[in-house]
Amino acid sequence: MYGSFGTTLIQGALLAGTILTAGQLSGRWLESSLVIVSALLVISVIRRNQMYDWLEKKPGTPLGHLPGMWVDMSQRVIHRERQLLRERDEAQMLLINLHQSLSSLDSGLVHLSPEWKINWWNAPASGLLGLREGYDTDAALFNLVRTPELVRFVEEGDFELPITLASPITTGRMLEYKVCPIQDSGFLLVIRDVTRFTRLERMRSDFVANVSHELKTPLTVITGYLETILDNQLVTSQGVRAVEQALKQSGRMNRLLQDLLLLSQLETTAPDPKPTQIRVSDILEHAVREANEVKNALQRETTQIHAITTSDYNLLGDWNELTSAINNLASNAVRYSPDGAVIELAFAVRNGQGLLTVRDNGPGILPEHLPRLTERFYRVDNSHSPATGGTGLGLAIVKHILLRHGGSLEIDSNPGSGSEFRCVFPKERTTTAR
Predict the structure, then answer these.
(1) In this predicted model, what pLDDT tens digit does every residue of 20-31 receive, in sequence order?
(2) pLDDT tens-digit profile of 406-427?
(3) What is the CATH code of the structural domain delimited by 105-193?
(4) Any idea which fold 276-432 has?
(5) Residues 6+ away with beta carbon under 8 Å from 122
(6) Reading across the β-sheet that carries 430-432, which strands appear in turn?
């Protein structure tokens, strides 16, 4: 009412006036002062206890009469209590609205503690994972979603890309899991039903494989007849060039079909369950021979291709797939570098991981093209020119081969400074040759 300072002044003045009056009437100043002060202390203790009792009661309980400074204190407490109640109600309403909004999403959301225990989930998550209200709160996620692949994904700790797995409760349904770490609060698990997209991708892959297979037989017949015409000189000199061009294009189409079939096989089949130990030096030597054949075919007379092996290592994998990946990278370096370029193939170990590297001093690649290099038929110059002899599927094949071996493809390139392609293999696939 008067504020803390004003209330203190008033109480001090009343105390001094009371002591002066009592001392003047009784003539005993010391005794009167002690009696009055003691009485005030007793009253203060009583009022303080009343205040404590009121504070311990349920918010909103009426407060009895408290004179003096206790009135000001109680009014401040009541004002603060009402403010906190309003803030609490607003926070609760905001939380209710947030939960309703999150429940209206198509994706399932699960909030997890740092120990991967379930704190909260929205309605779609209940349907996708079979979570039950009142039963699964504070339960460990991996006790309810028993998917070994998800456990390995979490243990690896690389959450940059999502993982797609079969539904733990519905046969034929495919779910995509995306883990979003929350600082000092745990994780947010985002689940999407991608069954439709998975089926469409499988249909696309099957279509490409079937069409490629069906085109292979008639293309073989056409190529055979063209070779017969040239070998038996069944056309005049004016028609020889046309037949040669047709034969060249049929060969290019045949390489394209082979790459499409290989890419389809990589996408639709499981990796070799029994990989073998392969000497890295053998892989590099094979890649150098293949790159030299491409060099001779393109008449790159001064281009230099060599391999560097500092020590002997083995890679655990499939010979055909690994050699295909490195051959594609080495052949691309020859095709897209000018005559006189230096192409180097090397192997190194980084933190236990194996690195198969193909680097060149060619023209390099602009940064905006790097994220899309592994897309099918993507070309930097957008010309789709057959001059280089490539099919536009080489890097897509490399990416899928590395994924089947638990690895990844790293690309460093700057215009005018050449390019470096690194095939990164996990520790468990990199061993020292004995």
Answers:
(1) 676 666 666 666
(2) 889 999 988 888 899 999 999 8
(3) 3.30.450.20
(4) Heat Shock Protein 90 (3.30.565)
(5) 99, 102, 103, 105, 108, 109
(6) 276-279, 313-317, 430-432
